[in-house]
Write a structure and sequence with these properties.
Strand content: 15-25%
Largest sheet: 6 strands, mixed
Low-confidence stretches: none
Distance between the termini: 42 Å
GO molecular function, one term: phosphatase activity
Number of helices: 6
Helix content: 25-40%
Organism: Aerococcus urinaeequi
Strand order of the largest sheet: 3-2-4-1-5-6
Pfam families: His_Phos_1 (PF00300)
GO cellular component, one term: cytoplasm
Structural class: alpha/beta
Protein name: Phosphoglycerate mutase
Shape: globular
Order of helices and strands: EHHEHEHEHHEE
Number of strands: 6
């Protein structure tokens, strides 16, 4: 039995637009972010892709994205373990203060999470979801760094997924899960070129 996982990033937020560090803190979807989620939803509808179950981070930006994509009247699960990296005292500061990648344990020195702890948290969360839904198609809406850490954990990839595979807002990484192992299948990106900033 194969479980198919669509691991999607939320739509554009106010902090994304303002180039602010956004991890454990939250900000609302912008009009563009809402439209990105609608484009993702429309793609799934056109392709006949349906989800048996859906999960989101407890952050508003993730749950709001999920409700647009999955349906506002459908039940879904919200998990704190799917939240973004906690950047400690760097939260809501300008992105130009970010250290160069890889971050490693930098943020742990400022009341944030160590990279190894963050990677373990997100990987365990997705593993538990996959184990609980054999032979189903699952939508998980989370965050950019969280999804990148899961991808690196399961593929040993150490580059930038945003630069190398074009991973942006409302993109989704697709994985097959079988016999306790994840296999990366593809990335689903959308064309937002006609959307205003």
């Amino acid at each position: 039995m194969t479980t198919k996982i669509y691991l999607m990033r939320h739509g554009q937020t106010l902090f994304n637009k303002l180039h602010k560090i956004q991890g454990a803190s939250d900000s609302p979807l912008t009009a563009k972010g809402i439209r990105q989620a609608e484009i993702a939803r429309d793609h799934f509808e056109r392709e006949g892709i349906t989800f048996d179950v859906a999960y989101a981070s407890t952050s508003e930006r993730a749950s709001d994205t999920l409700e647009i994509v999955f349906g506002q009247n459908k039940d879904y699960h919200r998990l704190k373990s799917l939240k973004e990296w906690d950047f400690g005292t760097f939260e809501a500061e300008s992105e130009h203060l970010n250290p160069p990648l890889p971050y490693g344990d930098f943020f742990a020195g400022y009341q944030g999470e160590r990279e190894v702890d963050f990677r373990k948290r997100i990987s365990q969360a997705v593993q538990e979801i996959a184990d609980n839904h054999p032979d189903q198609t699952v939508l998980i809406v989370s965050h950019g760094a969280a999804i990148a850490q899961f991808f690196k954990d399961k593929t040993n990839f150490e580059g930038s997924i945003s630069k190398e595979i074009g991973f942006t807002n409302c993109s989704a990484l697709i994985f097959d899960y079988q016999d306790g192992a994840f296999e990366y299948v593809d990335v689903l990106n959308h064309d937002y070129s006609e959307l205003a900033d």
